[in-house]
Design goal:
Helix content is 42%, strand content 13%. The chain has 273 residues and is of the alpha/beta class. Helix 6 links the parallel strand 3 and strand 4.
Length: 273
């Protein structure tokens, strides 16, 4: 029997056990009650209330504009739907960088107001002080290295990170630093497969990849991408499991046709006096 089959509720400890057992961790994003309920029911181990809500829910070009209040709202919606998965919430841009006290206050708001289980933040040595401050309150922290979308204006591109030796060495050192600081898990985004494998083999905490190859402890995708709702985003690492955009378009067109033709509602779909 698998580790997570025995546990009704996934915890940070569950993920540690899964890594030790060699069992792969599944993680998807969710931002609302209805889809979070389906994701949780489907058996996903970790639900990330990602700041990617800025893109897929609000139509923003980057993740930078989303606010803490908006992240808390999305997390509250998800929390009401979830029975089993561990809920991790992204700290949005501007709520933790360079100010460990603000990082702690932001994290406490997420835990109290949204009843989440953990927070996630981007960066390595630059944010270690904030991570340690958050952990003093007993709040679990997930790290995030590689492509860090909140820093898009620094990078200027969403290209693969850490291909050069110097940046790869910094990423490896940052990963060790995050584990030492107390992070319970780490996300690696869009980095070379061999580097991700090295990180996962060296760290005792779970390493979850997105565009980091198969040699890590788990995978995460943005739900709207893997369901084929978003159509203008096609990185190499994305596998679309459905074409919901096409299915929804067809359903909406059929509905419009039926209303305009008088076919909907039918006699059987109407109430008699």
């Amino acid at each position: 029997m698998s580790v997570h089959a025995e546990a009704r509720k996934v915890t940070t400890h569950t993920l540690q056990e899964m890594k030790r057992a060699g069992e792969r961790i599944t993680m998807l994003t969710a931002y609302d009650y209805s889809l979070a309920r389906l994701v949780d029911g489907g058996g996903v181990d970790v639900i990330l209330v990602g700041d990617s809500a800025s893109n897929v829910m609000a139509g923003q070009v980057t993740t930078v504009p989303i606010t803490l209040d908006q992240m808390i709202y999305h997390a509250q919606c998800v929390q009401r739907a979830v029975d089993r998965a561990l809920i991790v919430v992204d700290l949005p841009f501007g709520t933790y960088q360079g100010n460990s006290r603000q990082a702690l206050e932001s994290s406490i708001r997420i835990m109290k107001e949204a009843e989440a289980h953990a927070v996630k933040l981007e960066g390595g040595s630059e944010v270690v002080e904030s991570i340690k401050r958050i952990l003093t309150a007993g709040i679990p922290v997930m790290g995030h290295l590689g492509l860090t979308p909140q820093s898009i204006y620094k990078f200027g591109t969403y290209t693969v990170r850490a291909k050069e030796e110097e940046e790869a060495e910094k990423l490896l050192n940052d990963a060790r630093l995050l584990e030492e600081a107390g992070c319970f898990a780490l996300v690696l985004e869009k980095i070379p497969r061999d580097l991700a494998a090295k990180v996962a083999s060296e760290l005792s905490i779970p390493v979850i990849g997105i565009g980091a190859g198969p040699d890590v402890d788990g995978q995460v995708l943005v739900l709207h991408d893997m369901l084929g709702i978003t159509q203008d985003f096609s990185p190499r690492f994305l596998r679309r499991y459905l074409d919901l955009a096409g299915a929804i378009d067809g359903a909406v067109r059929s509905y419009c046709d039926d209303v305009r033709s008088g076919d909907f509602p039918s006699e059987g779909e109407s109430y008699s006096s």
